[in-house]
Design a protein that fits this description.
The structure is a homodimer of 163-residue chains. By secondary structure, the first copy, chain A, is of the alpha+beta class. Chain A has 4 helices and 8 strands; from the N terminus they run E-H-H-E-E-E-E-E-E-E-H-H. In chain A, strands 1, 2, 3, 4, 5, 6, 7 and 8 form an 8-stranded antiparallel β-sheet that branches.
């Protein structure tokens, strides 16, 4: 299979990979950037170790709470790569199939490279089917992940300045 | 959630964890025990590293080939623990949802402990739903995994004697 089932955004961040890593893995930092405002995060739990929980609940204005089963951390290689998936829960147990055929599980692969005195951030969403890629694009992947990458950069740069 | 969605078998094997580990991860050994005879394995590919492929095709007499999407290795901690899942493919990409609601994805968690001069083998299948647990039991989990654990023991013990 050579078909590309991924969506990717990149961003240069003026902070060290170590600082960005903390923003990816520490709940009190993650909560500040991971949802595109005005979406809010109401619950967050992250255990950055393979098999650990990755749990986020978002509250979308005029829609309500987006709550799925908890996800699972797959790789946590500080400060270069964090991978988690919604298809599995804590301890690598599979999550239940969706009842709505438009829903999909994705895996997020986030890579950090030291570059130009800062950090080059690459976030890739991996999907199972071309339909899921299209659905994710229509949900506003580029806007949403672009906005959150900007929020991540702002947070990491602020944090870098005042450790 | 406290519900148990796992099925487990255990077996004491008179071989070292290192030898059993090789049987779990080397294709030319895996092919000899992983399917309960007279089921045959016609294709096997394993890359024992997180994100690596776990691919097995079986041929069942009077039924034919059982071919699903390739699975993904999640943990490969020689010689103590190997975890792979059918819910993800190589590189941690989610696998497509099943079209048949009776089908299910599982994760296999295999643990090896040095004990009594040999290896205590624990194989656990993790499921997403109680329905999947029941379906797996009805497919003959205990017979099937019991038979393959016996085949694994026989292979590892033979291999141990003639390194």
């Amino acid at each position: 299979m050579t078909e590309d089932l991924t969506l990717t955004i990149t961003r240069q961040i003026n902070a060290s990979p170590q600082t960005v890593w903390r923003c990816l893995t520490e709940p009190e930092l993650l909560v500040q950037w991971f949802a595109p405002k005005p979406v809010e995060i109401t619950e967050v739990e992250v255990d950055p170790t393979p098999g650990g929980i990755f749990h986020i609940v978002m509250k979308v204005p005029e829609y309500g709470e987006m709550r799925g089963p908890s996800g699972c951390v797959l790789l946590a290689e500080s400060p270069t790569r964090m991978v988690w998936t919604a298809a599995l829960g804590p301890g690598f147990a599979p999550n239940p199939p969706h009842t709505n055929p438009d829903d999909f599980y994705m895996t997020a692969d986030m890579r950090l490279e030291a570059r130009d005195g800062g950090c080059f951030y690459t976030a890739t969403a991996l999907h199972a089917t071309p339909q899921a890629v299209v659905a994710h694009e229509k949900m506003g992947f580029y806007d949403g992940w672009g906005t959150t990458a900007g929020q991540l950069a702002e947070l990491a740069e602020h944090y870098q300045d005042s450790p």
